[in-house]
Amino acid sequence: MTMEKTIKSLNMHVPTLAELTAEGKKPEVLFWVGCAGSFDERAKKISKSFVKILHKAGVSFAVLGTEESCTGDPAKRSGNEFLFQMQAMANIEVMNTYQVTRIVTTCPHCFNTLKNEYPSLGGKYQVMHHTTFINTLIKEERFTISGSEYKGKRITYHDPCYLGRANQVYQAPRDLIKKLDAELVEMKNCKSKGLCCGAGGAQMFKEPEKGNKDINIERTEQALETQPQIIAAGCPFCNTMMSDGIKNKEQEEHVRVQDIAELISKAEDL
Q1: Full-prediction pTM beyond 0.85?
Q2: Where would you tag: which of 11, 28, 107, 263 has the fewest CB atoms within 10 A of its CB?
Q3: Given a cut of 70, is residue 9 above it in pLDDT?
Q4: Do residues 256 and 230 lie in contact, with contact meaning Cβ atoms separated by under 8 Å?
């Protein structure tokens, strides 16, 4: 099921850029859904939650729909620079044709690639992670968060590598968790000393090399040390790896792994 079909199941109208352009309109932001958010069953729930937030805040946005293709991040991380540049140039041509200026995405891999690696190829945009964007909406008084759903609950936050250490976005996700009136409990490795979930550098798509322990198991153990009720993430890949770790530790009934957009969507009963 594509993202377009996924969003249609929400009973919400999510226009494509092609559709708005034909009507002579321009959205304030392009929602870059990403491969995971479009095709992975778990990650599609994150996309839906973010769309609900955008609708609630009255944000004028659009998606590329079938005109969106992979940013090229997995190709670049696995060493295929030629394929990366082909994928990137195709996306840049599409976005520049539509005169895209602002992009928001729920995937730090897409965020990092669009923000830092597209400019040298001619794709210069203001790119935001969805936690930063939601924080902006709150500051502009376009959106509010009720904390009653999570009041007093212990939530630990896992810093995605491409959001945290690669782009120094540490505070926005934590600010949102605090607005939920939850108790934020930090892992021993957090912020600039955060530990990868095990999916970075195209590792998501291969089995790990032999070693003493898989990285996602090590990270899950660090999370469980904080005795959380919820592990909050800001990345679909991290969500998958941490969820697998929780299953490995047989803690599914006690600890949930959720994206911050999902937490907010549920708190607001969207």
Answers
A1: yes
A2: 11
A3: no
A4: yes
